[in-house]
């Protein structure tokens, strides 16, 4: 099971190679053996053929002899017909045997011997026929009786019988060889088949083992994936919870901070009221002193009382201004945390209509500032309409707020689509933002550049928080003194996951 | 502020954990010329004990003309809980309850009116507005009629 992958592949290749070699070997052996079997069979059939032909020769010669004897008995030349046919017939047969005997020296010598005897026999028979035809019948019969012809025939029979016996032995050997070859062929084929089946089985085993391993690995991967998803879901839940906790915290803290603020503000005002009483009391006391001790030092003391009053007022003034600031900040945090807790209601938002209504609300200010606003066709997007309105209202507000003194303000709003997102750009030719402040402008209560416009440093922080909660991203490119472009990228389709990314 | 039938002056029960707020409220109510007795409580438990009595039945307050001035953010319980108990008690349900708190959450306001609160006022941080609001509340106290105790 722990076979490394490269080893498995090598083994697989090796098995394939072995299987292939076996196939080649078996094929070669089979071809060779089949060839051998064919040649064995040919030789066997040659042997039988030779036997056959030799018998033919003997038979034809006997017929020729009978034909000659018939003539001698009857003196009727028609008996000689068979005799005359026999000679060319025997020659043909001998020629055929010669062809078959080409490869064998024994056969050649046998056929030569047979040939000689046949020639001698025909010459002897022809001579006797010639004598008879010339009318020397007694001489002819004497020569027959003398038995030369019979001796030749006996010798021929012996030669042929011997040859046939030899051929029979040979045939036996050939047949045995053929049988052996066939057996060998069978054995080789069976062995080859068995080997191939073996290799195949081994291969199947290996593949199966590999498949099981792959299956196990796949199972492990699936388990890991499931685990990963669980971890991601768990983390997301954690994050959402932490986020909600922060929202709650911000809400409670800002809320609870207001209570002491009410006291500070209230008692400061009470002090202010008391001041009137205290100073009028002092005035009365002084009047009594003047009455008792005369008007000496009065002017100096009056000045000192006035100074005390001014200092008192200054202190109270600072306290009240600070409380006012603190109240605004707390309200801002409260508003942000409240926004953060708002449930979104996504719908298909017609951005052209939304932008038109936004522009209408600022048109008065735009005319005052002599600013031009240009809006291109904007793609619609599935998102929360109120959030989208707040985002672009803040961006347009900012653009109008931070213009340049030396140039008329121009604001351009563009939009385009990608496969998954809608991208909107709000570009102005205003004062721009220093690269070092790109992050800072999005932070709560932080502002950048010349602080000559009223503001809490909340707008862009709010915008970025909203865009993030909508599942989008916020971008900024800007050059100081030339203008800024704020880019809002929102997902085209709303998904539940958007909220958890808040 | 009097109840129609009895000659007893209406008692203002103020449940407010912040002593400063309590003091400022009292000052401004007095400035509006309201001289009714004010009984302050610094936490919910004491206030509830006073209103409902030791047995918690509310019988203790039977026959007393009351008006409750209630803060929602209390250390030991929420004002909403007290409001709910007052408005569901047989003897106290007709007692006017004025919620005076820093919370301006729309949902919270809605919940208080659902429970039967009679007036809901958010404390302004700006003291002039605060003083003004309390003074007007005082003026309101001087003219409203509280139901007669049975």
Describe the structure.
The complex is a heterodimer of chains A (502) and B (150). Chain A has 502 residues and is an alpha+beta fold. In chain A, 74% of the residues lie in helices and 8% in strands. Chain A folds into 3 domains: 5-214; 243-340; 345-500, Histidine kinase-like ATPase, C-terminal domain (Heat Shock Protein 90, 2-Layer Sandwich). Chain A has 10 helices and 7 strands. A 5-stranded mixed beta sheet of chain A has the order 2-4-5-7-6, covered by helices on one side. In chain A, strands 1-3 form a two-stranded antiparallel ribbon. In chain A, strand 6 and strand 7 (483-491) form a beta hairpin. In chain A, helix 1 (5-74) runs antiparallel to helix 5 (148-293), helix 2 (80-101) runs antiparallel to helix 3 and helix 7 (351-368) runs parallel beside helix 8. The longest helix of chain A is centred in the middle third of the chain and has 146 residues, at 148-293. With 150 residues, chain B is α/β, with parallel strands linked by helices. Chain B has one domain (11-66, 73-141): 3-Layer(aba) Sandwich (Rossmann fold), CATH 3.40.50.2300. In chain B, 39% of the residues lie in helices and 15% in strands. Chain B contains 5 helices and 5 strands, in the order βαβαβαβαβα. In chain B, helix 1 packs across helix 5 (127-143). Chain A binds chain B through residues 255-256, 258-263, 265-270, 323-324, 327, 338, and chain B through 18, 20-21, 24, 27, 73, 102-103, 105, 123, 125-128, 130-131.
């Amino acid at each position: 099971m722990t076979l490394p992958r490269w080893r498995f592949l090598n083994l697989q290749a090796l098995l394939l190679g072995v299987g292939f070699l076996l196939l080649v070997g078996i094929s070669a052996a089979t071809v060779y053996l089949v060839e051998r079997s064919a040649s064995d069979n040919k030789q066997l059939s040659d042997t039988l053929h030779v036997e056959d032909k030799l018998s033919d020769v003997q038979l034809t010669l006997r017929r020729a002899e009978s034909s000659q004897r018939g003539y001698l008995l009857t003196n009727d030349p028609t008996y000689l017909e068979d005799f005359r046919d026999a000679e060319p017939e025997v020659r043909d047969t001998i020629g055929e045997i010669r062809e078959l005997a080409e490869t064998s020296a024994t056969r050649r010598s046998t056929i030569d011997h047979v040939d000689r005897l046949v020639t001698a026999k025909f010459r002897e028979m022809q001579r006797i026929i010639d004598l008879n035809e010339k009318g020397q019948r007694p001489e002819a019969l004497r020569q027959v009786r003398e038995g030369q012809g019979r001796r030749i025939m006996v010798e021929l029979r012996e030669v042929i019988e011997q040859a046939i016996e030899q051929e029979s032995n040979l045939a036996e050997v050939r047949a045995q060889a053929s049988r052996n070859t066939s057996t060998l062929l069978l054995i080789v084929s069976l062995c080859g088949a068995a080997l191939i089946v073996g290799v195949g089985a081994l291969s199947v085993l290996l593949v199966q083992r590999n498949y099981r391993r792959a299956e196990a690995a796949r199972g492990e991967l699936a388990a890991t994936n499931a685990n990963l998803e669980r971890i991601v879901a768990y983390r997301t839940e954690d994050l959402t919870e932490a986020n909600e906790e922060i929202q709650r915290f911000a809400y409670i803290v800002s809320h609870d901070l207001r209570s002491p603020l009410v006291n500070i503000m209230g008692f400061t005002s009470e002090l202010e009221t008391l001041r009137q009483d205290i100073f009028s009391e002092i005035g009365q006391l002084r009047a009594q002193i003047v009455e008792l001790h005369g008007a000496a030092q009065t002017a100096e003391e009056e000045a000192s009382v006035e100074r005390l009053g001014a200092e008192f007022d200054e202190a109270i003034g600072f306290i009240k201004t600070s409380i006012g600031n603190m109240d605004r900040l707390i309200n801002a945090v409260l508003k942000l945390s409240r926004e953060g807790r708002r449930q979104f209601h996504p719908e298909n938002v017609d951005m052209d209509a939304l932008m038109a209504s936004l522009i209408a609300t600022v048109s008065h200010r735009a005319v005052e500032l002599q600013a031009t606003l240009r809006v291109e066709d904007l793609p619609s997007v599935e998102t929360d309409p109120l959030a989208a309105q707040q985002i672009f209202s803040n961006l347009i507000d900012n653009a109008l707020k931070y213009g340049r003194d030396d140039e008329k303000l121009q604001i351009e709003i563009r939009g385009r689509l990608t496969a998954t997102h809608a991208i909107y750009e709000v570009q102005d030719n205003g004062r721009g933002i220093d690269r070092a402040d790109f992050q800072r402008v999005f932070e709560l209560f932080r502002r950048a550049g010349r602080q000559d416009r009223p503001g809490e440093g909340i707008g862009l922080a709010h915008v970025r928080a909203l865009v993030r909660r909508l599942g989008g991203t916020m971008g900024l490119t800007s050059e100081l003194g030339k203008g800024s472009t704020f880019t809002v990228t929102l997902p085209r389709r709303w998904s539940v996951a958007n909220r958890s990314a808040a | 502020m009097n109840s129609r039938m009895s000659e007893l002056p209406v008692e203002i029960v103020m449940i407010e954990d912040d002593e400063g707020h309590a003091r400022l409220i009292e000052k401004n109510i007095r400035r509006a010329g309201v001289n009714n007795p004010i009984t302050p409580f610094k936490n919910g438990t004491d206030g509830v004990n006073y209103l409902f009595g030791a047995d918690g039945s509310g019988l203790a307050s039977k026959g007393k003309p009351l008006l409750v001035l209630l803060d929602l953010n209390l250390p030991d319980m929420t004002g909403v809980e007290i409001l709910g108990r007052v408005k569901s008690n047989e003897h106290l349900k007709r007692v006017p309850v004025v919620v005076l708190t820093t919370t301006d959450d729309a949902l919270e306001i809605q919940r208080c009116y659902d429970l039967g609160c009679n007036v809901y006022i958010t404390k302004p941080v700006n003291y002039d507005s605060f003083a003004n609001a309390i003074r007007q509340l005082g003026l309101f106290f001087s003219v409203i009629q509280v139901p007669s105790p049975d």
